[in-house]
Amino acid sequence: MLLMEDARKIIDELEGLPTLPAVVSELLERAEDPNATVGNITEIVENDPSLNAKILKLVNSAFYGLPRRVSSLKTAVSILGFNAIRNIVLATSIFNMFGRRGVRFDSVGFWIHCLGCAVGCTTLFRRIDVTDEHSEFVYGLLHDLGKIVMAVHMEETMAAILKTARTEKLTFHEAEKALEGVTHAQLGAALAERWRFPETLTNAIRYHHNVESAGAGLTEASVVHVSDTLARALQLGWCGDDLIAPVSEAAWDAVGLSTGDVGDVMDRMHSGLIAAHAFIDLIAEQ
After folding, report:
1. Based on C-alpha coordinates, what's the Rg of the chain?
2. DSSP string of 107-166?
3. pLDDT value at residue 260
4. Which residue ranges in the chain fall short of pLDDT 50?
5. Average pLDDT of the chain?
6. Which of 122, 172, 254, 276 could form a Cys-Cys staple with 240, CB 3.0–4.6 A?
7. Rounded to a whole number, what is the largest CA-CA distance in the chain?
8. CA 147 to CA 139: how far, in whole Å?
9. What pLDDT does residue 250 have?
10. Which CATH superfamily is domain 4-18+103-283 in?
11. CA–CA separation, 84 and 81 (whole Å)
């Protein structure tokens, strides 16, 4: 299997790989500024009228379930917080860049799987007292970013992995390891680094199949790992194979789930997926 340095080199050399829009880059930079204000954030997003309108439409959707209609971006930032707005912008941009591109696998099923994983992340972070659950939604939504890179820009690699997974009855990740090439987790993390995603998000993408190596990011990687597995068990969408791999013991310990908790979490994921469809439907609009 190739190393992370190889994944970075592949990302650097891919032709036609989109760059992150300026508005997202500005918001990610602002995330590191402890003195950022609601006005600062509002000013950045208001420079893109289409994005501004989409945020307001999403904020007023069933996904957030706010008690009253929000009519201004400033109010939306005040109510939901900076992280939620940042992640709406981030997810919208990813969909615009990759959502409707021709790919070699079931792209609709793929995004439904990511959506299911995102709902799982929201549910699990709530259980372990992470209060900004809207921010954590994007961990699940973008955890398989590397698969989109493969599908759009590395079609032969994607085809080989899918064939190996199918003929050898392996998971997508096991097929990657069998072929000893770069993994989707490495590619996704390399792209996240290039786009200057927050370190916690980048690490969760990189280690969601290898949580034991996540270091300080163990909790985030474990939440994504468990949510990914539960989304598979619920058959939410499709992510390159139809198998369910065992959950890492380290991830179980980090998330703190007992076997008795799993049914409740899966019920919440199933019901939460209905409201969360509004998120996908709106950010995927052209």
Report:
1. 18
2. HHHHHHHHHHHHHHHHHHHHHTT-S-HHHHHHHHHTTTHHHHHHHHH-HHHHHHHHHHHH
3. 82
4. 102
5. 85
6. 172
7. 55
8. 15
9. 94
10. Hypothetical protein af1432 (1.10.3210.10)
11. 6
